[in-house]
């Protein structure tokens, strides 16, 4: 491959396109200006768009509050959290202000909060978290969890166009590992899951970095004669229950895989919906596989065990297929 | 902008309206007609009106809970006040939020959330938007109490506004108590005014019970912000003359405080000044009271006949993006 675009470059490219095409768009976050962001997701954008890519103080609450005020006034702010973990310092503005604004006032609140999410080697407890379930819990927020270079590009562009607050969970593990030959001109809309791999014996429902671990697990089971269907949710809110149920109708077995903490999470929500709406489709109790219910550990040996991997997903599939 | 005597008369009339509106709301609360709390700005009308009256159409205003006078000065109406308190479907919040959580954000009148300090950065963001669009001569203003200055959100918002040199006016009503907590359990600096220098913003200090002083000092602060001199931080000293809300008898406010100069009623003082300086006659003031009372009674009767929000008519989808609605149809 002569030329390839990484997941991270696709994020930068989407922001560049949005800045170029829509004068209402601006970017606000720590170190996003001349430095180009802690991960370089805004590399060169401050130079290319003077005055529209602005360094913020270390003030997550004020960053989001500022974006809300600007959005009320018709702008399309993109807030970059340096790490998803730090967005909890801006939680109040996100869930109580942005998330309630349209319901309360009928004034839209079109902003995007980018959350560099998920574990990476030696990230530790405070640079590794996946917070999509936290934000999906609150009304009024769209929560996107793109798993591919193509999706991260088209979904970020869609996030900026949506008239509501969007929590954009981009996965740091995918930043450099994932590459595509070129960027797409169009993509599936938010709320539509994708069947990434068709199968007949069991369904894995997953999203973000766990898509790739799940695909590897599904490949591993080919040797045992199993065809595993893998559904990429793409967005966890809205959640494409129809595609999930249609897949379970074909396979009769469900495993939901998420890198996030288990308690009250996206996997629990999917299992609850399938159980409530598709109980008769199931040939076995639906299963879920999450990270462990502890803070994310620092050491790579612990971290590698803390989160689901292709190997643990394959084991979970084997157990499911025997139920 | 009216001449100074006219401005004073206009401000007094708005203070009077706010006081009479809140008296009526209190009575309605006691008769069980109001859902939720009633939060009174009794004793803070002079300060509140002084900010609202200096803002123009096109400015941004995020009042807080004791700003009925400022709200009326900025253009909110007695009708919308009663609609929101009484839960009419026709109010600006349509029963989706109530009492002091009302506004019309599209018109620069922001609807506060309960989390103190949160509106500071939101007003800052609105001012950033105006700056992006190249608009000048705009002012954004918000109010907060002494307790609210202890929040991280307040600090972050004011600091951000200072960094961006935004035309923001923050008015602190130091009414001595945050609910029941006195100043000496709230902050350790000698005066909140001293914080201005730490933020790198211009500080102003004013007696919050003297209408003329409030009009003068806040007028200067608003003019400075409008002229591009960056954030203005106004600290006003006064005493809350009522409880935190209607349910609170405020026994914690000491008799000594009530008897001190701080405990004087700004509305009474302003009326005395009007009469003493021959800016209004007793007959005029009596007529204003009568007119306002009539409007309040007519408005109350009208709003009590208005429809409540209908749960069957609700979409129950809190998203503005139409094409997403089918995704949430089963929510």
Short key terms for the protein model shown above:
heterodimer, A: 323 residues, alpha/beta, Rossmann fold, 2 domains, 5-stranded mixed sheet, 12 helices, B: 331 residues, 5-stranded parallel sheet, two-stranded antiparallel sheet, 7 strands, 43% helix, globular
Strand composition percent of chain B: 5-15%
Overall tally of structural domains of chain A: 2
Largest sheet of chain A: 7 strands, mixed
Strand residue content of chain A: 15-25%
Strand element count of chain B:
7
Return the CATH architecture of the largest domain in chain A: 3-Layer(aba) Sandwich
Main β sheet profile of chain B:
5 strands, parallel
CATH level 1 class label of chain B: Alpha Beta
Q: What is the terminal-to-terminal distance of chain A?
A: 43 Å
Radius of gyration of chain B: 20 Å
Instruction: Just give the CATH class of the largest domain in chain A.
Output: Alpha Beta
Query: pLDDT below 50 for ≥5 consecutive residues: which ranges of chain A?
Result: none
Mean pLDDT of chain B: 96
How would you describe what is shown here?
The complex is a heterodimer of chains A (323) and B (331). Chain A is globular, with a radius of gyration of 19 Å. The longest helix of chain A has 15 residues, at 7-21. Chain A has helices spanning 7-21, 45-48, 60-72, 91-105, 132-137, 149-161, 174-177, 210-222, 241-251, 266-278, 300-306, 310-322; strands at residues 5-6, 25-29, 53-55, 76-80, 112-117, 142-144, 166-171, 179-180, 194-197, 202-206, 228-232, 235-237, 254-257, 287-289. Chain A is of the alpha/beta class. Chain A has two domains: 5-180, Rossmann fold, CATH 3.40.50.970; 194-322, Rossmann fold, CATH 3.40.50. In chain A, helix 8 (210-222) packs across helix 12 (310-322). In chain A, strands 3-2-4-5-7-6-12 form a seven-stranded mixed sheet, with helices on both faces. A five-stranded mixed sheet of chain A has the order 9-11-10-13-14, sandwiched between helices. Chain A has a two-stranded antiparallel sheet with strand order 1-8. Chain B is an alpha/beta fold. Chain B has one domain: 3-Layer(aba) Sandwich (Rossmann fold). A five-stranded parallel sheet of chain B has the order 1-2-3-7-6, sandwiched between helices. A two-stranded antiparallel sheet of chain B has the order 4-5. In chain B, helix 4 (78-86) crosses helix 11. Chains A and B meet through helix 3 and helix 4 of A and helix 5 and helix 6 of B.
């Amino acid at each position: 491959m002569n030329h390839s675009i990484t997941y991270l470059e696709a994020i930068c490219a989407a922001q560049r396109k949005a800045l170029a095409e829509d004068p209402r768009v601006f970017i606000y976050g720590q170190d996003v200006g001349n430095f180009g962001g802690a991960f370089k997701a805004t590399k060169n954008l401050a130079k290319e768009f003077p005055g529209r890519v602005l360094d913020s103080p270390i003030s997550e609450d004020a960053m989001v509050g500022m974006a809300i005020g600007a959005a009320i006034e018709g702008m399309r702010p993109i807030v970059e959290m340096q790490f998803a973990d730090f967005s909890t310092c801006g939680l109040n503005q996100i869930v109580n202000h942005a998330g309630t604004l349209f319901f309360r006032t009928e004034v839209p609140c079109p902003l995007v909060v980018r959350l560099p999410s998920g574990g990476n080697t030696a990230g530790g407890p405070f640079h590794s978290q996946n917070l999509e379930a936290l934000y999906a819990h609150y009304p009024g927020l769209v929560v996107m969890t793109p798993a591919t270079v193509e999706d991260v590009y088209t979904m970020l562009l869609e996030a900026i166009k949506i008239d509501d607050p969007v929590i954009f969970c981009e996965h740091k593990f995918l930043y450099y590992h994932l590459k595509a030959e070129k960027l797409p001109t169009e993509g599936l809309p938010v709320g539509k899951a994708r069947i990434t791999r068709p199968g007949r014996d069991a369904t894995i429902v997953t999203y973000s970095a766990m898509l790739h671990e799940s695909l590897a697990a599904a490949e591993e089971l080919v040797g045992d004669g199993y065809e595993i269907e893998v559904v990429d949710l793409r967005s966890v809110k809205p959640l494409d229950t129809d595609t999930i149920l249609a897949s379970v109708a074909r396979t009769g077995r469900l495993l939901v895989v998420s890198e996030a903490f288990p308690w009250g999470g996206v996997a629990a929500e999917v299992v609850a919906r399938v159980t409530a709406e598709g109980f008769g489709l199931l040939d076995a109790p639906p299963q879920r596989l999450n990270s462990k219910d502890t803070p994310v550990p620092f050491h790579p040996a612990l971290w590698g065990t803390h989160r689901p991997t292709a190997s643990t997903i394959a084991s979970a599939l084997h157990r499911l297929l025997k139920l | 902008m009216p001449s100074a005597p006219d401005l004073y008369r206009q401000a007094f009339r708005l203070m009077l309206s706010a006081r009479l509106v809140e008296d009526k709301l209190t009575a309605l609360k006691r008769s069980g007609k109001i859902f939720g709390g009633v939060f009174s700005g009794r004793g803070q009308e002079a300060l509140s009106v002084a900010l609202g009256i200096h803002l123009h159409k096109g400015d941004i205003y995020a009042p807080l809970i004791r700003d009925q006078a400022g709200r009326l000065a900025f253009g909110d109406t007695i009708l919308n006040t009663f609609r929101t308190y009484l839960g009419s479907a026709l109010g600006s919040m349509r029963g989706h939020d109530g009492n002091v959580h009302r506004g019309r954000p599209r018109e620069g009148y922001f609807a506060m959330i309960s989390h103190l300090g949160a509106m500071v950065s939101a007003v800052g963001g609105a001012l950033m938007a105006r700056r992006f669009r190249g608009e000048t001569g705009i002012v954004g203003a918000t109010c907060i109490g002494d307790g609210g200055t202890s929040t991280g959100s307040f600090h972050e918002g004011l600091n951000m506004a200072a960094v961006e040199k935004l035309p923001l006016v923050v008015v602190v009503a130091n009414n001595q108590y945050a609910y029941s907590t006195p100043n000496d359990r709230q902050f350790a600096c000698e005066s909140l005014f001293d914080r201005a220098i730490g933020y790198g913003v211009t500080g102003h200090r004013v007696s919050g019970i003297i209408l003329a002083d409030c009009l003068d000092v806040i007028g200067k602060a608003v003019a400075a912000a409008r002229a591009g001199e960056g954030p203005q931080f106004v600290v006003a000293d006064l005493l809350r003359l009522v409880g935190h809300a209607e349910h609170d008898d405020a026994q914690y406010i000491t008799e000594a405080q009530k008897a001190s100069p701080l405990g004087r009623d700004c509305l009474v003082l302003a009326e005395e000044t009007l009469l003493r300086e021959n800016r209004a006659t007793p007959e005029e003031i009596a007529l204003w009271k009568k007119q306002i009372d009539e409007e309040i009674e007519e408005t109350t009767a009208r709003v009590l006949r208005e429809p409540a929000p209908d749960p069957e008519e609700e979409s129950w989808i809190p998203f503005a993006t139409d094409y997403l609605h089918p995704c949430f149809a089963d929510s």
